[in-house]
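An instance follows:
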Amino acid sequence: MRTWRARAAATGFVLLLAAAACRQLVGIGDETPSSFVDAGPEAQPDADAGPVCGIGDEGATCEACLETSCCALAGACAGDTACKGLEECAGACSGDPTCRARCLSAYRVPSDRAEADLAACLAAHCAAPCNLTCGAGLAEQFGADAAVGCQACLAGTCDAPSACASDPECQAIEDCTISSTADDRAQACLAAHDAGLDAFVAFSAATENACRGACAYGSQWSCVGHEPPRAEPSGDTQMTLFVFDGQLNQAVPGVSVTVCNADDPVCSVPPSGQTGPDGLVTFTVPRVLVTGYGATGYLSLSGPGLLPESYVWGYPLSEPAVRLQGAVFTDAGVGALESLLGVSILPERALIAAVAFDCNDSLAVGARVEVQPSDAQTVVACLRGGLPTVGPISDDEGECLIVNVPVTASPVTVTVTPEGLGTPSSVVTGFVHAGSGTGFLAHPNQ
């Protein structure tokens, strides 16, 4: 599972996202995409080893422990194509975190019961002989470049990583993060493995607090160019939206919410619902809006005293339910934003909030956020310390505000390009309107 971490800015604009639970994603690495092609000779299994249990591990003591404590689970993994490739590769690494990270990037196994069970068994019963103490196997999910430093940091906060690594449900939640960067699929995976949630939240909190730099949070880009296939939508999606005032941090009742087709710039359909006293509203997103994987719909929000806003969720829905949250922008907030930026916000232009994520679903660090069309009056300001600062490079809050965006009859395009990667990680399109705000979720989709 990944942390639903998109947060409302101090200015209170449409920063939307989230699930019911707060969680920090521990993702799959920040090495360059070439690592998917070749995990390196040090990460290749010995084809002649002939392991007794179907899946072996390098080193006599580790192999003996596997055969004694986890043999049946290794056999189940050997019969599972996705599990077998990853575990054979990782088993040849003798616990080396860089090698294991290359294996994970090369195979990118989605949530897999056999893999989670075997990984948890090894961590619980064979940690010392297999060099997996203090949850060391989890460091592989932070990429080859960060894995060594991340593993050393995990050793200093040992209890939580060890508990997660030895819990098959917590391991399964970790695997969820590899399979998708879409909120709805990650939420469904979380629900399927909620028995591991407490262990995962504890691990996430400990790791983010103590090991943010060592584990390169917000800078994992190994999924770019290697996104797994999207699931075919099985039907309509029930969407629950929580709307709150981003400045006052309280629920906003009476907000009309409309589900709009991605190809409809004026959203010419009746409202889908209205938030109640608790700020919640549930409505149906028709399957027709999400078929084809190119177009997604968007939400239109309006209410007394609020700047009209839209929300582009940015990925094709495929699950039967999803929960999101959105901060609304009041008229007073526009004036506050003008004062902070020293820029006049022109009523004939549009305002955008773009929330950028890395492959872990952590808020992106060091990514350039751009919009097209733009001109000399367009200003990009990314959040730092909760306040917008003029400049297009995201900080660990992951959000950039873009003011005075030209309004045309065509959709605008928001592009996120990590520094040093040389290629975009996210490209999201949507309509904007004069005197209105639009929120874009920019999960990796390239």
Summary: Residues 197-211 form the longest helix (15 residues). The CA atoms of residues 11 and 336 lie 7 Å apart.
